[in-house]
Amino acid sequence: MSGVETPPILRVAVPVPLYGGFDYLDLDAQDPTPIGSRVLVRFGRRRLVGIVIEAGVESELPTSRLRPIETRLDDAPVFDDELLALLRWAARYYHHPVGEALATALPVALRRARTDQTPNRHRGWQAVAATGTNEPAAHAKRQHELLDAIRTGEHAVAHSHLLARFGSIHAPLKALQQRGLIEEVDLPGALEHGSAGHAPTLTDRQREAVEQLARRSTGFHPSLLEGVTGSGKTEVYCRQMAEALAARRQVLFLAPEIGLTPQLIERLRSRFDATIGVLHSQRSDGERADVWRAARAGDADIVIGTRSAVFTPMPRLGLIVVDEEHDGSYKQQDGFRYHARDVALRRAQQRDIPIVLGSATPALESLHNAQHGRFAHLKLAERATGAALPPVRVIDIRSRPLLGGLSDPMLAHIERHLGAGNQVMVFINRRGYAPALSCHDCGWIAPCARCDAPLTLHGGGARLQCHHCGAHEPSPAQCPSCGSKELIALGAGTERVAGALRSRFPDVRLARFDRDSVARKGRLESQLADVASGATQLLVGTQMLAKGHDFARLTCVAVLDVDGGLFSADFRAAEHMAQLVTQVAGRAGRGDLPGEVWLQTRHPEHPLLHRLLTGGYDAFAQAALAERREAALPPFGYLALLRAEAHDLQSPTAFLAQAAATLNTDPQLACLGPVPAPMQRRAGRFRAHLLLHASHRARLHPALDHWQRVLGELPGARRVRWSIDVDPQDLL
Ligand code: ADP
Ligand code: ZN
Ligand code: ZN
Question: Among 60, 302, 471, 637, which residue's Cβ finds the most Cβ atoms within 10 Å?
Answer without folding.
Answer: 302
